[in-house]
Write a structure and sequence with these properties.
The structure holds two protein chains of two kinds. Chain A is an all-beta fold. Chain A is built from no helices and eleven strands. In chain A, strands 2, 4, 5, 6, 9, 10 and 11 form a seven-stranded mixed sheet that branches. Chain A has a four-stranded antiparallel sheet with strand order 1-3-8-7, with no helix packed on it. In chain A, strand 5 and strand 6 form a beta hairpin. Chain B starts with a strand and ends with a strand. Chain B has no helices and eleven strands. In chain B, strands 2, 4, 5, 9, 10 and 11 form a six-stranded mixed sheet that branches.
Chain lengths: ~110, ~110
């Protein structure tokens, strides 16, 4: 069974630029999560989707971050404009349902200079 | 405020020794407590998990001890091996929507 796929794996941008990350969850997984993991910290949930609807985006900085999951499968996370403090690893995870185990992708390491 | 506090931040253990990582939580609205293992450049992977109605769970060399009244739980790694060297995260799942709250992580180094 293929795992959670993410791209790109690495991205370096300058502050005030925009960037987008892509996630393809495990086939059949209805729940998709985006986490931000700052160096030396645990992952922090940014947004949770159930199919193509948002369940929780309480910690998403909505003035600069946006995410979508239009067809209930793939998802994209966008940052516009980026700030230095956005440098982190962005992890995508998926699960069959909110009560099931979450499987994580390898993450995208973002460096904002 | 939902928080999970993890200690120690880093841990060095000799091969064959016991590694112990502790976590404490503040909110009682959690229904599931997983531990994740993360290697450099990889995403976290579920190692072992426990529900609050159980005081202990063992899988191979890994054991979770859970103290509901104290709101604390810990991971014990018996016979630690160099291959166990990784960062370990405890987490707690919100019983409303499945949101995971992670601890700050423990970087474990097992010396041969």
């Amino acid at each position: 069974e293929a795992g959670v796929a993410q791209s790109p794996r690495y991205k370096i941008i300058e502050k005030r630029q925009s960037v987008a990350f892509w996630c393809n969850p495990i086939s059949g997984h209805a729940t998709l999560y985006w986490y931000q993991q700052i160096l030396g910290q645990g992952p922090k949930l940014l947004i949770q989707f159930q199919n193509n609807g948002v369940v929780d985006d309480s910690q998403l900085p909505k003035d600069r971050f946006s995410a979508e999951r239009l067809k209930g499968v793939d998802s994209t996370l966008k940052i516009q404009p980026a700030k230095l403090e956005d440098s982190a690893v962005y992890l995508c995870a998926s699960s069959l349902a909110p009560s099931n185990e979450q499987y994580f992708g390898p993450g995208t390491r973002l460096t904002v200079t | 405020q939902q928080q999970v506090k993890q200690s120690p931040q880093s841990l060095i253990v000799q091969k064959g020794g016991i590694s112990i990582i502790n976590c404490a939580y503040e909110n009682t609205a959690f229904d599931y407590f997983p531990w994740y293992q993360q290697f450099p450049g990889k995403g976290p992977a579920l190692l072992i998990a426990i529900r609050p109605d159980v005081s202990e769970k063992k899988e191979g060399r890994f054991t979770i001890s859970f103290n509901k009244s104290a709101k604390q739980f810990s991971l014990h790694i018996m016979d630690s091996q160099p291959g166990d060297s990784a960062t370990y995260f405890c987490a707690a799942r919100d019983n409303q929507g499945g949101k995971l709250i992670f601890g700050q992580g423990t970087e474990l180094s097992v010396k041969p």
